[in-house]
Queue: 3 jobs
Job 1
Amino acid sequence: MLRHLLVIALIIAPLATLHAAGGGSHLEPFEPANGEKLINYHPHFQWRGPEMTLDDQPECEIQIAADSDFRRVLATDVIGGGMNRFYSMVSLTEPREYFWRVRIQKPAAGPWSATFRFTIVAPEKRFTIAKGSDSTMVLETLRKAAATAKAGHTVEVAFEKGDYTLGPMEDRVAFRIDHAPGFRVEGNGSSITMVSATLFSEVSGSQNVEFRQLTMKWATPGHIMMEVTKVLPETREIEVAIPSSYPVKDLETYWPESGNNTFLIKVHPKFPGKYAGGFRAGTARTKLSEGVYRIGSADEKDRGDWERSHWQVGDRIAATHYRPGFIQNQNNDKLVLKDITLVDTPGAISGNGGRNDKVAYLNVDVVPDTRFPDCRLAGHASSEGGRIAAWIEQCDFHLLGDDNYNAGYFFDYELLHQHDEPTLTMKIQPWDELIFPGDRLRFADQKTNRAVGEAIAVTVDTSVKDEVKVTLDRPLPSLPASTIASNNQGTQRYVYRNNRQNGGRGHGLKFKGYGALIENNTFENIAGIGIYLGCPEGPQTIARSADMVTVRRNTVTLCGWHSIEAGQPAARSERLRIEDNVIRDSKDAGISLINVHGALVRGNTFESITGFFEPRESYRSLILKDCTDVRVSGEVLKDNRVKANP
């Protein structure tokens, strides 16, 4: 699989600076290849084209048809932001031959590309899970199908429409798809209830995997709610009770004292999903009776948590932590989730596995459990790495207990030795994103949180375990021993459009890497930043950046901190377009840019509609810090609290 990914990466890496053969605006399709046979109902389309610049990010029109003359067009779309890839919301479920072509539509219409054909074929092996099958029968079928796929066959598992239960089971994963050449789970509108805290599937080293038309539930709720019954300010404690509607009365299940990724958060009564305050995982708690607890501490380290929360009798707080969720996605090429609903999912949609290629989430919803009408959580979202990052469209992420989609979740490389000015050896971990020739590396000093250089990798040697030796295209000055590097090419061509997020304890959308289109989304009632580009992971010294990103026609309402933020001191971000967005009731700034060099910020509207903030509070429409070549125009101010950009 890694060899396969290496070949893909070597093909894709030059696309950042590629001009189309023959010049002009002609595009060259290459995936699916001409004549390729697939079991995918949602193939990944890709083409080569002219270089993108800040001012010229061409929009491409794609057509998929049932005939070579394109009289029976099945799907058509226009992809902006300089994107050269596409996933269709339309399912190509009929086994037959299809045709596709692409052209530049804007700024001026170009010629159609050559027409490529591909064929959707039936999988080699098919398995059916009959309605009424018990857990043992379902698991046996899924595991047998996975073993058949590992033996080299393309496989489909189809559920007859019904309600199924899996578990209880001791395994961490219900079934594993490993090194499959093609695998499809066809739910046909079925629902599956997981009795155990178990992943439905772990997918690794595979290609062309699809999960379709499924609703996933968990027998144990992914969270519990509590109501404050008493406030004890002298000891900075509160007493809480779990409502009778929640079947689990044990707080430790959701808020273990020593647990990681564990949250106890205050929910806003008027703005669902607007979380504020709470307690950290290690805060002292005492069980007073079944479902009744005293929580808090007079310890000075907890003073800030207490003061921010402003506790009152009747307040609601939610407890949740990560447990196994839907799937674990690791080292796969083309994995599609289509028409999936996750009800109060306790873990991520797709756990971070890194090095995934061309993931697509199409109409994936994370929703609350209707058994609990007063709930304020629906689960968590997702993290992904990968060189060709996810395509996410028409998804609804509702009342999240953590950050939403986090594109570019991988670690950095620590400097081990600088052999000479252009040659370095760095430490690399198994979970790190690989470096390939043509990638741009950004270097930062962990001690000062400042950039110290950047260069392009010319040669890469990974022959020594846990090390990578890189020759760069330019000499670098003597680097501090505390230098780290990040691979800005690690996450490429990310698309997030026509999605909705209402509520979130963390940030809305986070992206690091090269090439992203973020358009026509809504973000509402989120505690953190709505759209966060070039954001760090872990300590602030990690050198993340965002390059060639278009953020347009989004609506960001009542998101904390800044509504849209890009950049950080340790790594320069560049070529950003932030256009025609509507920002409503921002907190600290509508748009904040830090260490951004080259940006268009135009046509953005600032409104006030929620009444959340006091009229005397104010914020800036735009804050610039350590930036150059930022062009601002066309601000529309409809909020009396806004201080316009000078």
Job 2
Amino acid sequence: MVQCDFASIRERDMDVLFAETFAADPTFLPYVLEKAGLPFAGMQVVKVELSRQDEDGESDITVAISDGTKRIGLLIEDKISAPAQPRQLERYEIRGQKQVGQDFDEFIILIFCPDKYRESNGEAKKYPYHVSYESVRDYYVKLTDPLSRLRCQQIEQAIEQAAKTSQVILNEKAISFFNQYHKFVDKEFHDLKMRTKTTSNGYWQRFGTKLGGSYIMHKTNKAVVDFTFLSATRSDLENIQKLLSRIGINNVEVVSFDRTVALSIKVPEIKYTEDYSAQESNLRECLDAVQTFSDLAELMSYGKRLTER
């Protein structure tokens, strides 16, 4: 068996693993239903959806199942070690109710997480149904195909990671501040694609771009906006920096990290500990920099498409 070291496993990695198994392995659903104590026989998976979002938040994994007459939605929250979020279970209830009559006839809310996480997390214990990472690991252990062996190693390492990670305290003041940040983006910079959840407890706000292999990060506490490239060289970005200077964009620097390089613009520092309204003009300046990089990424993506035709 090939030994795989996954280094650091993110919850998104586990979301994809579970979604793939629901979609590809017909015996996984009845196993999960049994472990959760759900009395549904003869059900089959008809649809799997990752990261379904609306104004009331996000469902990590949505699995629609049916016995041919009734359609049930499994709304799954997946946790390794991230802190519980305020009203998270309540928001799952709200999203599920919206989907009743459209996507399914009724819904069930579950949480997938390591036993260690559930033992130390009061919010996790509120979920009506629970499937442990350990029980899913036991499912993969019994399978002998190479993909199941790989999945078994991944979930084993996720369990170990959860055991080593201390519980992060949710900073409600930061959550409140960045909720207002996100609302401002939605209102004033609605073309920007935010990738950081309002409740992530993270002070670096991430934005997607239309250029593959890149992303934009507003590092609020470091007072910079970075346009990061996963496979570019420093000389590549230095050439782009020179071209930008020729068209009057002179505030861009090139910075190097361990595995990536980025174009960077210095912006005002944003402090979640201070009043939001007093910082809105500074935030606009920061988001103008994000917009500049977002537009540049879109322009570069058009150029890439033209050369590939």
Job 3
Amino acid sequence: MLLFMQLINLLQSAKESALKKEAKIFIIGHRNPDTDSICSAIAYADIKNRTCKGKYIPKRAGSINEETTYVLNFFQVPIPGYLPDVQNQVKDLEMRETPGADKNMSIKRAWKLMQEYNAGTLPVVNEDGILEGLITRGDIAKSCMNAYDNTILSQAAPKYSDIADTLDGQIITGDETSCFEKGKVWSGASQPDMMENLIGENDLVIVGNRTDAQLCAIDVNVSCMIVCMGSKISKSIQTLAAAKNIVIILTPYDVFTVTRLIHQSIPIRYFMKKDDLITFRKDDYIEQVKDIMTKNRFREFPVVNSKGKYMGTISRSSLLNIRKKQLILVDHNERSQTIDNIDDAEILEIIDHHRIGSLETFQPVLFRNQPVGCTATIIYQIYQELALDIPSQIAGCLCAAILSDTLMFRSPTCTPLDISAANALSFMAGIQIEEFARQMFRAGSNFSDKTSEEIFYQDYKKYIIEDTTLGIGQISFMSEDALSDIKNRLIPYIETEYKNHGVHMLFFMLTNIMNKSTELICYGKGCEQLIAHAYDVPVVDHCCSLKDIISRKKQLLPKLMQALQA
């Protein structure tokens, strides 16, 4: 029965260890995420977690807008966590999880712990796990090589219990919790008359089985007497020693071995480094870590959390086996739209419905790109292909994404597949499409408490076309009055901030969903000529009206690209 329980515990430990090492894959949309990029990431994470190994986590590359907030709250779906960039961090390294040592641990026990974990550095922590210092193999070697002072043991003040443990001995008399904190260490191999001249009160003396030497040590009031070779200690000696509170330690080792080993009972606090410690946190970026490691030639560096609690150690060799963050991109494939430091990550898949952009990968990936109105439509198809049931909350999110991207089927990007998917998803979610869409758009067009900057970045994307960079933003409205108010707020902001956006031309679409038209704000050298060439409409005070133009992807961007190439 005992063997069976041990086997169960072993299997459970192996399972927990495997789960701990389970790969995390982040599923993420573009910067300034819209409802489609957020909901598609959430749904695709559900698919992958039900069909693949690993832990798939939906993330967002920016703040979510009011429309998306409304959708997630309506269906009671948590907002994905924020992932600002994918630059490699300390948490992406293989950390050595060497246990922390107590500062009162003896050198001998510290050395054994280092050997057990094949560690060159041992972190020293307090009872709360807070890092207090470090001790290395080099520190231990130096402590042993420089052992010429016979008062060093009392300076370090080890407990008698630690001295006994170091010598594999046992305490016969005296208080094992007290410390040796006064006097010198002597070998009592001399004749008693010579011992009397050398040994003083409170010293520690190492003796053999000679009764006269033991009595001499007691007479001079030593604090501790170590009896070697497991020699028998008479009752009278024990009684005399106990009367004077002298600690007697019986060890199986000879005098030479005891003299050599006793130094290892010194607590590591005496030799550990505790000032100017170089530590890292899990969120520190690797580029900074490399620079610090280069300037400080230590073998291992401790990692602590924000409260200083020890987490593990890393070394230069850790940098060779760095685990790149693994990503699945949804709803974009443009470098200018993706998360920062994308080159530091490993892209596994791309699911998108836009034009094929400028993003490159280091190896082949699964790239699914379909000419539909919404990425959520593709995600719905994947559910169908895998014969997976769609949870009602996720069905609602996917339906909302399709309604948002197709402007409730009014956009020219909308296809029969989008309409069919939205109808099926609305049934699963138990919502009425028109009623829900109006509430969603109304929530999304409420900008009363938003700054001009927040409005501008709500749905803003960059596009690089040959040598020209275009910035195009878009927001939608249910009424003309709300559109006019935002227009008057945005024009001054764009005029002031244009130079800070790193683009040649800026365009912002104020789209009226109900009458299928757009007020276009444009700014930048040559933008008025570009609009005139693309649409043959006048631009007055940086604005023009575009009838039947509501899609950035299918109606605005392609026209601008053609005009630029022309």
